[in-house]
Amino acid sequence: MQAVQLTALADAPAGVTDALDVVSGFDTALVNGFARVSEPQGAALTALAGAVAGSPLTGAVAAAVSKVSTGAIGTDELSALAAARAAVLGSVHDALVEQADNALGRNRFEWTTAPDAAAPSPLAAGSRAWLGELAIAGWRGVDHDLVAAADRTVEALLAEPALRRLAMLLDGFTAELGACAPIATMDRIPARRWADLWTRALLLSWRGTESAAPEAVSGRLLPLGVDVHEHGTAVQVQVHGVLGTAGAPARQVRVSVASAKVDTIVGPAVWQLLGTHRQLLTALAEHRALELTDMPVTATGDLLWDDDRAKAGEAADPFVTATVQLPQAQAPAVAPLDRDPVHIAVPVLLEGYRFRDGVLELDGQRLRVELDALPSAGPLTPAGVTGSSTMIGLLRWDASGWSVRPLAVQRKVKTVLTAFHNGDWALGPTDPKVAKAQAKSGDAVAVLRERAGRLLRK
Length: 458
Fold this sequence. Notes:
The protein is an alpha+beta fold. It contains 14 helices and 13 strands.
């Protein structure tokens, strides 16, 4: 097993701070919009152009800055600025991933998929026009009328399967903006988040139909842990694991399954919404391997989950997998549009640490632990994590530096070393107190399904 070199993560790679300052400047410029470009906004645009000088974007971005600064704003100019912003964040992502791979002694697949040659859909032009209106108005200029102007565009995109990715992004984006409108009255604007969504939507609108077909793989999937993402209207679980196939090196992969929900379904009950993935849930709850047959996998290491192509097999301790298999497994390639620091999530095993003031300390180095990200759908608690001695987690990064999001821990319970995993309750809570409380409160999922059945029968 290769030890984690936290000392190699102590300082940000050279240029990262400057690059993020450029992005922050552009994001601040978007707050007030480009209807009239002020001196600070002009300086931010100039800095963005300077950050990509010498790259293939040089000419297009310089021309865009010149036109936008004089009030000649079009979707082509705004798309060039979005591409420049994404390129700067992409360089930050690459530097950070290289730093993490070096600290962990990991190897990674290179992105080799050919660029998409298909022409962008004419339907996407409407989304670019609306995104252009957003940039001109700025976040403080967004009101209900501007948000509603996207309704027909989103409806048309949702009807086209090839554009579903863009459609879902815009659908969520407009809902978020609508919930905050009129934004001029907001005390604090999430400038980075909204600029991220705006940039991604604009770049997605220029992409044609996805051309790279997934590969079909057969082999053994050894789960490491599960990251639970819960929202009022949706839940997603993302399983990180190591895939072994005959005649090929082991590789890190992900499995993402999701379901719509209502905000009254919380805690362990969310697992019931994913009941169609029985083999996956069984493997998580019982710590077993999964035997896969012709399961599609993308170039980014994402298994397109089909429960009929999987079967829960023999016992497989995730901590043994993290110790023996993970250090040798090839990390997945990263798609161009995913080269953003917010997407960094590197599986890691940490041992022999201690907690001081809520911060993990190992070999004289300190690492933040995302205790506020622990899901209520599993047995991990802040006290349980800070009392642990071994952890499987996801190494992540934000402006404050590196952190780890716990997926599983080992700690002593009455002198016995016991493991706790986010997926332990995938088939129902194993903690008697939690199970009793859930039984007392009733089965919210069953009640809602029964009521929905009544409505459909009427």
